[in-house]
Design brief:
Length: 109
Amino acid sequence: MKPTSAGKDTQHERDQTLKKLACVSNQWGPLLIDSIILMFSVLAQFLLMRRRIETWICWLIVDTVAVPLYASRELYLTAFVYGLFWCNAWYGLYSWIKIHRAENAGVPA
């Protein structure tokens, strides 16, 4: 079975698109780091739904990795927002530890 001319054009267009993307960025690092941020964000969300204290550790990892990534890409406002999220994650961890200790001691928080 011979390929049609439409198939050749489609493959040629795909090749051209891939070449354009390769020119934009040939660095695998930011893509890998962005994937790590996504993976830990999803994990943290699942942990949060189950009300696990480990969620705050995941959020701290996400924010600690995201701030330098976005700052290196000159996305300073986004890096600043993730810096605020980092502070929020520390406060959330502190609050949940305090509540957990109070519940285990039988004292209201």
